[in-house]
Structure formats: C-alpha cells, structure tokens
Amino acid sequence: MKNISFGQYYPAESLIHRLDARAKVILALLYIVCSFLCKNIISFAALALSAVVLVLLSNIPLKAVFRAIRPILFVMLFTVVLNVFWTKGESPLFSWGILTVYPEGLYNALFMLVRILSLIIGTSIFMTYTTTPIELADAIEQLLAPLKKIKIPVHEFSMMMTVALRFIPTLIEETEKITAAQKARGADFSSGGLIKRAKALIPILVPLVISAFRRADELATAMECRCYRGGDGRTKLHVLHYDAKDFLMMAVVVVFGVLLIGLNMLAIGYTM
Amino acid sequence: MSDAFIQVENLNYSYAEEDGREIPVLHDISFEIGRGEYVAILGHNGSGKSTLAKLLNLILTPTSGRILFDGKDVAEKELTEDELYQLRRKVGMVFQNPDNQLVATIVEEDVAFGPENLGLPQQEIRRRVDESLAIVGMTEYAHHEPHRLSGGQKQRIAIAGIIAMLPECMIFDESTAMLDPSGRKDVLRTIETLNREKGITVLTITHYMNEAAKADRIIVLDDGRILMEGTPAEVFARPEILRKAGLDVPQCSALVEGLREAGFAISGDCYSPELCAEAICRYIQEKRA
Predict the structure, then answer these.
(1) 3-state SS of A213-239?
(2) d(CA A112, CA A106)
(3) Residue B104 in contact with residue B87, Cβ under 8 Å?
(4) Mind listing the domains of chain B with CATH numbers?
(5) A72-107: per-residue pLDDT in tens?
(6) A132:B105 CB<8 A
(7) ipTM > 0.90?
(8) Partner residue facing A226 (CB), from B59, B114, B122
(9) Model confidence over B162-201: pLDDT tens digits?
(10) Hey, is the C-beta of A125 within 8 angstroms of any chain B C-beta?
(11) How close does chain B come to A40, measured CA to CA in Å?
C-alpha cells in the first residue's frame, strides 16, 4: 500500500521529465482532447501507438505503468461488458439466450478500452509520473494565477493540494496501523453483510480522523514556525520556465490531434 | 544587558478547568540561556516541560512573568504578525513528530520551504538548501520522498529545514522521542554539530538522560518548578534528587554508583560512557600500582 501510484513521482531521466510542468499540464489536457477525437479503427490505432510512444519517451518501466492501470481494471472490464452486450447494430454476430452480440459492440468495446487506457497513460505520464506533485501544484497555481485578480485563493488551493499529496502515504500507513491494532483487539472486517462491514470501519475511521486533525494542527504550527504567511512575497527554489522543447512538444500534440481528425475521415471499417 | 539569548523571568502558567478552577502548571520559573550555549531542560511526564515548550513557542501566553528572546519581551502583549515573523526567523523550532513537520513531497523542496517563505532569491535558496542538507548529512537524499525515509532521517530533514533559515537559536521539543536508538544518535550528533561548529544556541527539551548529558548545562524540571540547575557533572552527581523527580540517572552513572556502594572508590564524573570507562580504567590502574 505504501507504493500507491496516485500522485507518485517516478524519478528518471527523460525528455518528458525535463519538460516544464505547466507545459505538461497543458499537454495532458490536449492529449485528453485527442483521445476523444478518435472515431475509427485507424485513429484509435494511432492513439494506441501514441500511448506506447509516450511510455517509451518517458523512460518509465512498464511495471510502473501497469500499477497506474490496475485500480481501473474493473471499470475497464465493466465498460467492455456493457459495450459488447448493449450496443445494437444491424446484423448480429451471434446470440446466446437474451444476449446478442453485434460486431459494432465489439468495436465499441475495443475503442473504449483504447480510449480509457490512453487517457490513464497520457495523464499519468504527462503529470503524475514525470512531475513532482509540488511542481504540479506550482504549475496549476501559475496557470490559474489570472484568477487571483477575481479574489480566488489560488495559492492556498495549491498549498492544500501539496499538503494533501504529502500526507496521503502518511495517512495510509496510519490506516494500516490502526487496522492492525483493531484486528489485534478482535475486530472483524471481513465477514458479515455490507452494513456490518461498514459499521466495522467506524473503529478505524474515528481514530484516523482524530489523528488527522492533530497532525493538521501540528503541521500548521510547524509551518508558521518556518515563517509561512501565505503566498505573498514567497519565492521558489524551482522556478518554472518554458523552453523550445515545451512549445515543440505542444505543437506535436496539436498536430497529432489534427492528424486524428484527418484519419477519422478515412472510411475504413466501423465508425463510432 | 547580559549576553543571554533567552531569558525567562518568574514565569507562571495555569490553565482553567471547565468548572473554573485554575490548575497551576508552572511555578515561578526563571532561567537564562546564553548566546551559543547548549542547554537541556530535563523532566519526566507531567513535569511541565511540554507546557514550557508551548510557552517558548508562543502557542500559549503565560499567566504571569516574562519571556525575552534576544532582549525582546515576547509574552507581554500580543505580538503583531510582523514581530512574530521576525522572531520566527531568529528562533527555529523542531518538534517531536517528524511526519507532521514536513510540508513537501521531495526532501530538497521541503528544506527550501522556509527560505522560500523568507522571499530569498533562487540562488540563495539553492545554496542554503545544499548547505543545510550537508550539515545534517542528508545530501544524497535530496531528491527522495520523505515518507520513504526512516524517522531519524526525517527528523534530520526537519532540522535542515530550520537551519536553512539561518536561525540564531534552535529549540528542540522532544525531537528524539519518537526515534529509534540509531536515529536518536544521528539527530543528537547533528544538534551537537550545530552548537559546536555553527555557534547556534540550542535548547533541548527532553526526558532522556543521555541526551541531556551532552549539554553544557541542565535544568531539571519537576512538578512545574526548577529542581536543580547545573553542568551534567553537577546534576548527575546527585542521583537521589533526580530519582525524586521521577527521573533516572544515565546507565553509566548508575553503574558507577552501584560500584561505589559496593566499596570501589571510583572517583570523577561518570555521566557519559566515555567518562565512565576512563574512570573505571583509572581506578583499576591505581589499584594495580
């Protein structure tokens, strides 16, 4: 559990690691748009290929990429089943009882699978894996900086995000400790119905929440002791700066999007 | 004005129970800590030492009495945000739980947090981060995630985060209490380096004898009063008073005390393992001669 992939930076040397964090946020958004542009088998094939290229470019081992995918395996399976059995087409491929499968259903399932996979790979490669959470928070803070003019506390939001990311592993560790402590006292988390199991979580949640408040209090004191007084007048160890490679990469993704639109026009096979 | 960095004068603190009763915690505490000194405040649970820490931290305001940092009274009236900020620059605090002091998810970014708040230029932050990590011996971990480090390592990162602000004085509030013995050793060595080599005034609040033994001076707190004050040699020479305060003597002192009771006339100070070993060696050589 200590190695959760959410918000977990993977240190490595790569082109994508060196990109500006703001550029990476924009790139991730552009890539999401790209994945929704695909309509036929050729454009989806191009999307799948681009995801592979991204993984290769980022120097992140496949094992780590699979870790990002594992939590959504169920969602993917669900989507596939739903698409296979609920898409209506013209000529059924085969029927089995009340279930009828059309070729369109298989296509849709495949397309959705590729789309979800590339979404996850794209966002985790561009953002969580190659960008430290602090850089990410900084990037979002700077991208949203114009909103400060209308009194939106952008710095505070980004600080909250950083602190939340920092404490996720700590709180997970604590949850494990409390669970073990409650088990040692005879708590049973794995039997009984849904309600009984939900109730069994209370002895974990109550101490966890109390301790989270205590931690928050101590952290606030520690931050004040380190002269923290909000975003005004703060400087940064890592100053973000755009580079030629950032603009180049964004241009590449935009061109890729245009290419996808073009590929959609090719009348090959089923179109979503 | 004397050359004291921290002056505590007739400090009293009591907290109000829900039914309105006043429960006194600290009684008329006065002490001074000189510039560049290394002082330990020693006390067992309930001696009032955590209350004292909170007062020095300005989390609590004293019922009566004065606390002066660098000649400036900080307890007299509510400090303005700016005065508080100036004070925090000079006096760094390291707390008990390293987890609850680290803000950032990468070690060097956490160390940079203080200097960033001071609004220093980027190169200066870089220089201070590198220097601070070198002082605590964590340079090679600059790009690690704090939650993958051990307790002692995390605490040294927390200390580096304070050093990077170049404080004149550092207060350690039970900073080794949650660490394993090797982590404690590392942190103690770091504290000694800060005091001896960097000239930072150090005040540690602790209940560990061995930790207090490293200080120039020990203030023993019991039941909200100062029970004893002196060099480690003076304090540990009086185990009966320490035991009365619910404290133990360092193991080596206890060993020598036992030996003396058994009729071995070992002389000299024996509050650290090194001193103890020397004293016993000396005794054996004298016997042989």
Answers:
(1) HHHHHHHHHHHHHCCCCCCCCCCCCCC
(2) 10
(3) no
(4) 4-248 (3.40.50.300), 250-289 (no CATH)
(5) 899 999 999 998 888 888 888 888 878 888 888 888
(6) yes
(7) no
(8) B114
(9) 999 999 999 999 898 888 888 888 899 999 999 999 899 9
(10) no
(11) 42
